Amino acid sequence: MPDDVDRRSGLVARLGPGDPHSLLQRLCRLAVTEVPVDGAVIGLQVAGVPEGPLAASDSWALDVAKAEYALGEGPTFDVAATNEHVEASSGDAIEFQHWPQYARVAHEMGVAAVFCFPLRIGRARLGALSLLRTQPVELDDSQYLDCLARVDIATHALIYVQAGLQGSQFESLLAHRDVDRLRVHQATGMISGMLDCTIEDALARMRARAFVDGVTLYELASRIVAGEVRFEEP
Amino acid sequence: MTEIKRSGSYDAEFAHVMAEAVRTLASDFEFLDLAHQLTVSTASLLGAGAAGVMLEDATGRLQVLSASDEDTRLLEIFELQREEGPCYECWRSGTVVTAPDILTGDRWPSFVKEARTLGFVSAAAVPLRLRARVVGALNVFWTTPWTVSAQDMDAVQALADVAAVGLVQQRLARESGVVAEQLGNALHSRVTIEQAKGLVATKAHVDIDDAFGILEAYAVASGSSVVAVAQDVVDRIITWQDGALRPA
Fold first, then answer.
1. Which residue of B has its CA nearest to A125?
2. Nearest CB to A148: which of B93, B180, B203?
3. Fewest Cβ atoms nearer than 10 Å: which of A98, B23, B150, B219?
4. Which domains does chain A show, CATH number per domain?
5. Which pLDDT score is estimated for B205?
6. Contact between chains at B181 and A84 (C-beta distance less than 8 A)
7. What confidence tens digit (pLDDT) does each residue in A49-105 have?
8. Do B92 and A1 touch (CB under 8 A)?
9. Architecture in CATH of B190-247
10. pLDDT digits (tens, 9 = 90+) for A192-218
């Protein structure tokens, strides 16, 4: 039984309005103050390959992320390859040995534990949320669930940034509870087919269109599935 | 739809359903496929019109995972129960919910309105438990008046328990954090299938429900799971060419 019916809405409200880029940054900062971690980074993924950090809670977390991308190995790369969450603590040397170069650099920079979560919607793979700790401590159950709620928000925020939408629009559209209904996912697949674009691009195109048309994502999705709205290459 | 079964073969069919589920548990399986198998078995065993499984997601909301039939209207009956209905009540309370007559009373107004259009008149939901947590529910609908026995409800609970075992067994789950991720993985499989349905519907010029049939037929012919085929379709590893799905 859930202790909190909708962890998402409270979190979105605390993020407040603002431009898309600072939205991701505020999300990272909020993660550090509300979950017991010391740094947070949102990284972008394109065609299944990590591209680089988009936002970080502070310069330390950003530097750790830059080092990881420069090395081309580490939790973010494993998440991109497996599409599943990765966690490692320096208390458990075996886990860090998996990335010999990253383990060395992370240790030098004071990282003792890392939790990295895929940002995804179905088959759409958008990026990763990395949470860093300076102590080799595991997260307990409720902290873990707090992280997953942030993963959900970060995923939607990333799509909004890619759709070129503003922070205030993010709040109003995500607050709508039909954002993840089956029809929305069906319509995303249909857009991907109509435009011959990736499913990730389809997610962004759909949100931009919903904003332009002044309808909710679910209303637009219902029209697409009913064949009333088509997407065509310009 | 289906006649209520009350023959001597009931125990034999239940034993068969359990044996089949255990065989799946012992193999390399997708949780969504196990859930689908269990919903089909449940509906058949209990002479029900439909059965479905809902799971909670990471944001603490109930989401549809699988139904005995991929008809979008049926899936949406489950989806409606994100906020009301027997499945929602069962998940919130952690107890079995029976609704011998869902058409009278104003317990669940929007849900009843839609359930009525598919001819459902009675329902039951049993909790999906993982250790102390209720992570979802198995929900059954009948198109016939309520004749469900205590034995039937025990059978539904047993099938729900098998589903719960499948959820943790898919990978060794150490803690509820990992269970939450398992739930998430299963729900992402459902979303992937919906995305693939949309893509195939557009490319093959068929409706969403027929698109699922195309995915399923390809999965059967190639000996893979529908989820794996759906992933390959979204990734364009399998594409629609010359009137059929084929490797790109």
1. B235
2. B180
3. B150
4. 7-165 (3.30.450.40), 176-225 (no CATH)
5. 97
6. yes
7. 999 999 999 999 999 999 999 999 999 999 999 888 888 887 777 778 889 999 999
8. yes
9. Orthogonal Bundle (1.10)
10. 999 999 999 999 999 999 988 988 899
Residues of B in contact with A120 (CB under 8 A): 188
Answer CATH for B10-170 from 2.60.40.3090, 3.40.640.10, 3.40.440.10, 3.30.450.40: 3.30.450.40
How long, in residues, is chain A?
Answer: 234
A25 in Cβ contact with A56 (< 8 Å): yes
Check CB contact under 8 Å for A186 and B64.
no
**Token pair 């089949």 is at which residue?**
B20
ipTM for the predicted complex comes to: 0.92
Residue B59: helix, strand or coil by DSSP?
coil
- CA nearest neighbour of A84 among A39, A181, A151, A135: A151
Angle between helix axes B150-169 and B10-25 (nearest 10 degrees) is 10
Q: What are the angstrom distances between the C-alpha of B137 and each of A201, A222, B185, B220?
A: 34, 27, 17, 28
A120 touching B (Cβ < 8 Å) = yes
Half-sphere exposure of A86 (CA within 13 A, CB side): 22
Taking residue A197's Cβ as centre, other Cβ atoms within 10 Å add up to 16
